[in-house]
Amino acid sequence: MLGICRGRRKFLAASLTVLFVPAVTWIYLFAGSFEDGKPVSLSPLESQPHSPRYTASSQRDRESLEVRMREVEEENRVLRKQLSLAQGRSPSHHRGNHSKTYSMEEGTGDSESLRAGIVAGNSSECGQQPAVEKCETIHVAIVCAGYNASRDVVTLVKSVLFHRRNPLHFHLIADAIAKQILATLFQTWMVPAVRIDFYDADELKSEVSWIPNKHYSGIYGLMKLVLTKTLPSNLERVIVLDTDITFATDIAELWAVFHKFKGQQVLGLVENQSDWYLGNLWKNHRPWPALGRGYNTGVILLLLDKLRKMKWEQMWRLTAERELMSMLSTSLADQDIFNAVIKQNPFLVYQLPCFWNVQLSDHTRSEQCYRDVSDLKVIHWNSPKKLRVKNKHVEFFRNLYLTFLEYDGNLLRRELFGCPSEADVNSENLQKQLSELDEDDLCYEFRRERFTVHRTHLYFLHYEYEPASDNTDVTLVAQLSMDRLQMLEAICKHWEGPISLALYLSDAEAQQFLRYAQGSEVLMSRHNVGYHIVYKEGQFYPVNLLRNVAMKHISTPYMFLSDIDFLPMYGLYEYLRYHVWTKGHAPTNFAKWRTATTPYRVEWEADFEPYVVVRKDCPEYDRRFVGFGWNKVAHIMELDAQEYEFTVLPNAYMIHMPHAPSFDITKFRSNKQYRICLKTLKEEFQQDMSRHYGFAALKYLTAENNS
């Protein structure tokens, strides 16, 4: 795709001609310095609205979305009613009032209408448990690897955050994929009084790789065995959770159970609720040794300091080596080894009531763990079938799970009353920047959006990419909202190369997108498409933030900066990869493009916004421009200021698909203040360009005044 001009050592980047329906857009080629690497561009010949926004492209899509949202709301309403009825049937609880501690019977929440049902009565153990210090930090360890498990962790964390009243410290044993996803998620989530530490799961593989394991969790399913060695030596206790857990109560209640441990008890576990360890599930079924029904390790309370003193590492290794001589492999990963150790050392276990791990696999005794919803505390989807598992009350459990799955995570950004959060430099800087804004400024909301931190979930679906050996590969970059979802299949059919997409969605819409993608043969057959969810917040469509997110997470040397409404011509991917073009400057000339057989140069002009192919290290889009207007124009101006050069490609084009006017362009046309603020932001951008690029930037002011 890119060629090198040896005389001036300039890189060439390409820009495409785009065919509208009925208008035409161009494909351009950028040339920049050899050291910095530069872009390629594609720009419309005529100005037409084409950025994906909120407005549905068809009434049918809008109605489908509205129906689904109403269904979710109705399911949640029924769930709240069921839980409220359960609350009325449960006995009343004494509520304490302490200055430094609180009763475990006491419920909390940020959404009173929902919490009134879920929390009420969920602290129904006989007698009052020992209190937990009001601001005591609760430590939680989770092993997480891969794309799917990362999604599961988010739902688990939501359920914990929804009920919690204490600071939380999550210890995530994660592979490189999960770390990248979850580190970005928590950094952008910015939940007060929550700390995250990561531990490299790949470095731990050698500790357990010698154990053959048939369980679907693979090698990562064995890593809970090495937590005493992995977690900080000064950490005394931790709650260990599987990723397929949903909390229905405050996790502090479970933390308080540590106070009940006596003597040499170092493991808190719930009895296994299936007949697996009884060995009677089928003929010649031979499970690992266990005490009675055995114990399930989806929820574990670990007294780390005592385990270390007992030489836990040596204990489980010797047991595993001995049993593997006859069993040859584990069937249930770490659970088999935990149970074999407990069989020999039953004094290690404090048996938790079974409502702390209601196991929803097929053929379990889980129904004996609760008589009412008020008894539920932790739900464990420990069947490979997950939400499709057979259970008499599975619909209720599924609705509870979906409540958190689709719950707006932004609502969980709440301070803990009376518990100061640790100082966070990013948060402090953000508050400082916001405090410097003038709230009386008529354009305040526009300016504030630039500093809004949007919760971001990278690689929402499985992603694979094999780097090209010739170093010419190019990724298509675009952004969209729910109303442009129908464009995805067409783009995947037209562009076989890697794609990076930023999707602006609510939590509920993200799940609808997931179901849509999983039901599409076209999308599921493509593993080189990175879907990055940027969660909705605020009143503007953050178009340039979305573009920056998609640009930042590409794996190729070059990227094709497009919009979701533009359909690449068939073969465009290969054309961009293997053609070399010359650099240059000249005005766009549609008549010339129609007859051109070789690339030709173009110059920057006012309001120029081509679609371009550029190197991955090109400047980001300016976040001050949100919604409609100047979001691409400003970016092209910055590229020109940095001496990128544009070349039109004669045999490359895209088709602009027709669609309804976007929500933002409607606001632009109908709202005078919107237009005034956009003009103000343009002027401030041009002033910033003059300060940054000096005399060279004067042409932009002159061109704007003459346009």
UniProtKB/TrEMBL annotation:
GO terms for cellular component: Golgi membrane. Keywords: Glycoprotein, Golgi apparatus, Membrane, Multifunctional enzyme, Signal-anchor, Transmembrane, Transmembrane helix. It catalyses: 3-O-[beta-D-GlcA-(1->3)-beta-D-Xyl-(1->4)-Rib-ol-P-Rib-ol-P-3-beta-D-GalNAc-(1->3)-beta-D-GlcNAc-(1->4)-(O-6-P-alpha-D-Man)]-Thr-[protein] + UDP-alpha-D-xylose = 3-O-[alpha-D-Xyl-(1->3)-beta-D-GlcA-(1->4)-beta-D-Xyl-(1->4)-Rib-ol-P-Rib-ol-P-3-beta-D-GalNAc-(1->3)-beta-D-GlcNAc-(1->4)-(O-6-P-alpha-D-Man)]-Thr-[protein] + UDP + H(+); 3-O-{beta-D-GlcA-(1->[3)-alpha-D-Xyl-(1->3)-beta-D-GlcA-(1->](n)-4)-beta-D-Xyl-(1->4)-Rib-ol-P-Rib-ol-P-3-beta-D-GalNAc-(1->3)-beta-D-GlcNAc-(1->4)-O-6-P-alpha-D-Man}-L-Thr-[protein] + UDP-alpha-D-xylose = 3-O-{(1->[3)-alpha-D-Xyl-(1->3)-beta-D-GlcA-(1->](n+1)-4)-beta-D-Xyl-(1->4)-Rib-ol-P-Rib-ol-P-3-beta-D-GalNAc-(1->3)-beta-D-GlcNAc-(1->4)-O-6-P-alpha-D-Man}-L-Thr-[protein] + UDP + H(+); 3-O-{(1->[3)-alpha-D-Xyl-(1->3)-beta-D-GlcA-(1->](n)-4)-beta-D-Xyl-(1->4)-Rib-ol-P-Rib-ol-P-3-beta-D-GalNAc-(1->3)-beta-D-GlcNAc-(1->4)-O-6-P-alpha-D-Man}-L-Thr-[protein] + UDP-alpha-D-glucuronate = 3-O-{beta-D-GlcA-(1->[3)-alpha-D-Xyl-(1->3)-beta-D-GlcA-(1->](n)-4)-beta-D-Xyl-(1->4)-Rib-ol-P-Rib-ol-P-3-beta-D-GalNAc-(1->3)-beta-D-GlcNAc-(1->4)-O-6-P-alpha-D-Man}-L-Thr-[protein] + UDP + H(+). It is a single-pass type II membrane protein. It is found in: Golgi apparatus membrane. The chain crosses the membrane at residues 12-31. The keyword DNA damage does not apply. CDD domains: GT8_LARGE_C. Its main location: Golgi. It comes from the Eukaryota. Residues 44-58 have a biased composition (Polar residues). GO terms for molecular function: UDP-glycosyltransferase activity. Residues 42-63, 81-109 are annotated as: Disordered. InterPro entries: Glyco_trans_8 (IPR002495), Nucleotide-diphossugar_trans (IPR029044), Xyl/GlcA_transferase (IPR051292). Signal peptide: none annotated. PANTHER family: GLYCOSYLTRANSFERASE-RELATED, XYLOSYL- AND GLUCURONYLTRANSFERASE LARGE1. In the C-terminal section; belongs to the glycosyltransferase 49 family. This is LARGE xylosyl- and glucuronyltransferase 1. It comes from Gallus gallus (Chicken).
